[in-house]
Design a protein that fits this description.
The protein has 17 helices and twelve strands. By secondary structure, it is α/β, with parallel strands linked by helices. It has two domains: about 200 residues, Rossmann fold (3-Layer(aba) Sandwich); about 190 residues, Rossmann fold, CATH 3.40.50.2000.
Length: about 400
């Protein structure tokens, strides 16, 4: 998808810029407020939780407007947890051209009847998402713009451009993109104001007690030895979008083994997607303990969040669970390397990001569409098992 975005995206952005009068014609309105505000984030599910402050801000800025979200199929559960009704979750499948075409036509048809539409693209410099904002006919389209920098070419698709500030956390950048929709279109950078930390506006999840109890009973039924144990959750996986973010599997195994050996009151639960079930099964076999259970691919999104509320600690790669768990009170130990936690780190006040800060890191950013020439991620390989255990034990005292 990244390769398509680069090589097909450039000519498509140029062509779409010429076709703007047809793709996104001006719709007269009696109010400065749009009828519909659309947020677009298709690729990474974790970013949807990070976008919660932007959602809050959009509802305050445009209280009379309908708020919709365009995302991939995997994002539906996260948006439902944040209170979006089905009709405001607009799914765009990208696995095949027929699916993309069918969903694209459906989106354009639906939003052509939605009155004046404003759209904020929450994926900086991603041409595909900006093309979507234009295709659905949005009159105002905010997005990160390169101006005089070397960022990705977007043609004239952004009407309300903002500077991509690498010193802001992603949650702040998303708020900036929403703020830009409240300003007039201009070729100059929009949103010349201070955007404070958004930790206080992060997503919060607290399941009903009966939901917690049901999951607890299910865990004990599958692994009786976990009854009464403190649960350490290991997420040894990372999205294939950026494989460089993975800490070696054998090191997760060693961390798990030593925690089990050193703490008799600790049990371990492995989490992951359905595609990661086999890997988690292998990891469980390496741990070789009745106090280990793999729930990879066996939980719904709300059940996964509920699991975090039952846990004592989450040890995880830089991936979606960092942001999912930040909506709960579970302590988080997140391992960062190719990306900087100051930009896309956990928003939970109970999180610790283990980051070495090598001179070559971060090497994946929105500027390069998260593509690196690195084949040897020392930024993670130099994080030792002892380092992780040292931090983990602090949470388990």
């Amino acid at each position: 998808m990244r390769r398509i975005d680069r090589w097909a995206g450039i000519p498509l952005c140029a062509a779409a810029s010429l076709l703007l009068p047809w793709l996104a014609p001006h719709k007269p309105s009696n109010s400065t407020a749009p009828d519909t505000v659309v947020l677009i984030c298709i690729a990474e599910i974790g970013a949807l939780l990070v976008a919660h402050p932007a959602i809050v801000r959009a509802r305050k800025l445009f209280p009379e407007s309908r708020l919709c979200f365009i995302t991939g199929p995997g994002g539906k559960g996260a948006l439902e947890v944040m209170g979006f009704p089905d009709e405001d979750i607009l799914i765009l499948r990208t696995d095949s051209f027929p699916e993309l075409l069918a969903d694209g036509l459906k989106l354009r048809n639906a939003l052509s009847k939605a009155g004046v539409v404003h759209a904020a693209v929450l994926e900086p410099f991603t041409r595909f998402s900006h093309l979507v904002s234009t295709w659905v006919g949005a009159e105002r389209r905010s997005g990160c713009h390169r101006f005089h920098n070397e960022g990705g070419y977007l043609g004239s698709l952004v009407t309300n451009p903002v500077v991509f500030n690498s010193h802001l956390h992603a949650s702040q950048t998303y708020v900036v993109l929403v703020e830009a929709l409240a300003e007039d279109a201009s070729s100059e950078p929009r949103v010349k104001q201070v955007i404070p930390s958004q930790i206080r506006n992060r997503a919060r999840f607290q399941p009903p007690q009966q939901q917690q109890q049901a999951l607890q009973e299910r865990i004990v039924q599958q692994a009786p030895e976990l009854d009464g144990k403190r649960l350490v959750l290991l997420n040894a996986n990372a999205s294939d979008i950026v494989p460089l973010r993975k800490w070696p599997l054998e090191r997760f195994a060693e961390v798990g083994q030593r925690l089990l050996q050193g703490c008799n009151d600790v049990g371990i639960i492995l989490t992951g997607t359905p595609a990661e079930q086999n890997m988690c099964t292998q990891l469980a076999e390496q741990l070789d303990s009745r106090r280990v259970l793999s729930l990879a691919g066996q939980t719904t999104f709300p059940e996964l969040l509920t699991l975090y509320t039952l846990g004592t600690l989450l040890v995880t790669n830089d991936s979606g669970p960092v942001h999912f768990a930040s909506s709960t009170n579970i302590p988080i130990l997140a391992l960062y390397g190719p990306e900087h936690p100051a930009v896309f780190g956990p928003m939970s006040p109970k999180a610790t990001s283990l980051y070495l800060g090598l001179a070559c890191s971060p090497c994946i950013t929105p500027y390069n569409q998260k593509k690196s020439s690195c084949t040897h991620n020392r930024c993670l390989l130099d994080i030792t098992v002892e380092m992780v255990l040292e931090h983990a034990r602090k949470f388990l005292v």
